[in-house]
Task: structure prediction
Amino acid sequence: MTLLDLANPTKFLSLTARVLPWLAGATAILLLIGLYQSAMAPDDYQQGATVKIMFIHVPNAWLMFVWGVMSLSALGTLVWRHPLADVAAKAAAPIGAAFTFLALVTGSLWGRPMWGTYWEWDARLTSVLILFLMYLGLIALWRAVDDPSRAARAAAILTLVGAINLPIIKFSVDWWNTLHQPASVMRMGGPSLDKAFLIPLLVMAVGFSLLFVTLHLAAMRNEILRRRVRALQMMQASQQAA
Amino acid sequence: MTALAALIRRDIQIALRVGGGALIGVLFFLTVTVLMPFAIGPDLALLTRLGPAILWLGALLASLLTLDRLFTADHDDGSLDLIVMGRTPLELACAAKALAHWLAAGLPLVIATPVLGLLLNLDAAATAAVALTLLVGTPALTFTGMIGAALAVTLHRGGLLLAVLVLPLSIPVLIFGVAASQAAISGPLSFGTPFSILCALSLVSFVIGPFAAAASLRHGLD
Result:
C-alpha cells in the first residue's frame, strides 16, 4: 500500500472505513484516561485548580501543526497533482481553525484568573490570534469559489505563502511585544514541569493528536462523498437539459 | 529587458491617465489622515505621539485599496493572457508590473507624507523618518499584496477577499515600519535595528511575491 494506491478515492474510502472505528476508539480511551488523570492531578501551589485548564489548553495549542499538514497537502496539490491532496487540505482547514479557536478561548479563560484580564497583548496570544485570522481567510478563499479544483490550487498557494510568512509574523510579534512590554506575564517553564503534570499532559496531547487524525479522515471521507454527490447532480442536470 | 521596460512604461502610463485611478490612493491617504483627528480629538500632543502610526495605517490601507487594479484591468481586456503566454518569464513580468504599480501608486504616498506630517504636528526629523520608512516599506506591501491580487483575479473575486487575505501578511511590515519611525523620534531603541529588518522584509517580499503571484496566475487562469 503506497501513497499512490491511496490516490484512488474508492480504495481510500474502504481503507478508512476499516481504520476509523479503531482510531475513534483509541482517541476516546486516551482522552478519557487523560481527563481522569488531569482531574486527579494535584493543584498548583501558585495557580490552584486553574492549572488544570492547561491540560486542555496546551494540547489545543499543540495542534497548530495542522498548518504543516495543510502545507504538505498544498505541495501535493501543486507538485504531484495528487487527487486526495486538495481534499486533505480542504478538510484540515476548519479543524485547524477550530483547534486554534479553542486554544484562544481556553487561554483567555486561563488568563482571567491568572492575569486578571481575558485578553493580554502577549506575544503568544497575539500570534495565535493572527494564525486564527489566517485560517479564517483560507476558509473564506475555499468558500469563495464553487469549482473545487480551482479553489484548491489558489488555497494551496496561499497555504504555502502562509507557511513561509508564519515564522516571520511570529518573530515580528515577539519583537514587538518585548519592545512594548517587558516580560510581565508569568509563564510556566516547559522542562521544569513536574511529573504529576507532565504525564497527563502528554496523554492529552497524544489523545488530541489522534482526535485530529480521526476528525481529519472523517472529514476527508465526507468531502469525497460530497464531491461524488455533486458530480452525480451535475450529470443528472445535464441529462435533464439534453 | 526591453519587453519589461515597455511593460513598466505602459502600466505607469495607464495608471496615470484618466480612468487609471492611481492617485485616488493618495486622496484616500489624505482623507484617512484628516479623519483621525475627528476620532481622536484635536490634541496636538497626542497627534504627534500617534502620528507615525496614523500615517503608516493610512498608507497601508491606501496601498491595499489600489491593489485591486494590479491585475483586474489587464484581465478584463485580455492582455493578462498575453502576458502569461508571452516569452518573458511570468515571474519577471509580475515583478515588473508590481514595480510599475508601486511607482504609480506607492511612491505618491511617500511624497504626500511630508504634507500630512504637518497636519499631525510632526517635526521635520520625524516626518523624514516616517517618509524614509514608508519609502522602504511600501514596496513590501505592494509585492506581498500582489499575491492576494493574483489570487483574487484568478477567482474573479476582488475587494473584501483580497483585504482579508493580504492584511495578516502585512503585519510584520507594519510592526517594523512603525517601530523604526518611533525609534527615530523618541527612542529608546536605535533606528538602525528595526529599519534594517524592514529592508530585509522588503527584500524577502521581492523574492516571494513574484513567484507566488506567477504560480497562482499560471494555475488559476484557464
Observations:
- Chain B has one domain: 2-220.
- The two ends of chain B are 27 Å apart (CA to CA).
